[in-house]
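thread from #wetlab-drylab

HS: before we spend reagent money on co-crystallization trials with flavin-adenine dinucleotide, can we at least see a predicted complex? here's what I'd submit
DV: go for it
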Amino acid sequence: MADINIQENVPLAGYSTFRCGGPAKYFAEPATGDEVARLFRLAGEKNWDVFVLGNGSNCLISDKGFDGLVIRIGKNMSDLTHEELEDGRVKITAGAGLPFARFGNYCVELSLTGAEFACGIPGSCGGAVFMNAGAYGGEAKDFITSVTYWDGESVKKIDGSLCGFGYRTSLFERLAAEGKDAVILEFEAVLPKGNKDEIMALVDELRAKRTASQPLDVPSAGSTFKRPEGYFAAKLIEEAGLKGFALDDSGAQVSPKHAGFVVNNGGRASAADVLRLIDYVTQKVFEKSGVKLEKEVRLVGDFGG
Ligand SMILES: Cc1cc2nc3c(=O)[nH]c(=O)nc-3n(C[C@H](O)[C@H](O)[C@H](O)COP(=O)(O)OP(=O)(O)OC[C@H]3O[C@@H](n4cnc5c(N)ncnc54)[C@H](O)[C@@H]3O)c2cc1C
């Protein structure tokens, strides 16, 4: 594996928008599906656990870090191309490591409509597929027509309709939950042309809404909890009297700006501090409303049961 750089003991806090968490024992940023396959093969031989990381904007990484190999799908897999289709629409191919917001901005540059919401989401294109990222009525599934992924044996390309997209879930999320290997390598999206001024105005409007309502200047992983059916997590948290709440002065706090976000003020809190607050909020909301909040944020590494 001479040509894939595998680093040891790499601090992960800088690879997570929560800005906390310990190191990866091994860390690599592959450039191709073949390299992904080779890394998994090596991990199998060495008996290393593997975690696939995108932009770390939906992960809380344990203070102990990850005792195995973190495969980061980032800048080395961030190709972006487009092709005009005969029907006037445009097909975009985006590498999984490309920032999803860059994909959104590319659509704006090409006067394509439907991906305006993507401009405000801080994840990677792979993470957006995995989570079926969405905002303000739009979701990744609206325009993704195919996904290329490594399925543990070979690289496959499947139609968007087979990706099992649902609310913040996908086939890939379910495969990961079953402990199966699946690494998203790229997606294709088809979007229609629109009016550039209107597209730019919508992007500005969504950005303004986001800036006004979300604590974008404080480390977090966005919405901490999934939207429970029939409710809004932030409203339930507010009704439990927890908006702005902190258990201690660790830095972990329910955002005073948006109760759905647990934030890490100054990046001072440990992952354990953040998780303790998340668990407390879950418990208090359940006591108050009977609704069991489910984490949207994904826990990475050992949190001690
Ligand atoms: C300020 C802020 C605002 C946010 N707003 C929104 C929003 O409006 N809507 C929304 O949906 N989300 C939002 N998020 C959450 C987050 O940006 C999305 O969930 C995003 O899709 C996660 O992508 P990522 O690359 O950061 O994934 P990561 O956090 O790196 O990983 C998330 C999961 O995806 C898996 N994964 C990532 N890449 C791959 C890959 N290539 N192959 C296989 N598995 C992979 C990981 O294993 C992990 O389980 C926000 C986050 C922040 C910090």
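DV: The two ends are 34 Å apart (CA to CA).
HS: ok that's useful, forwarding to the group
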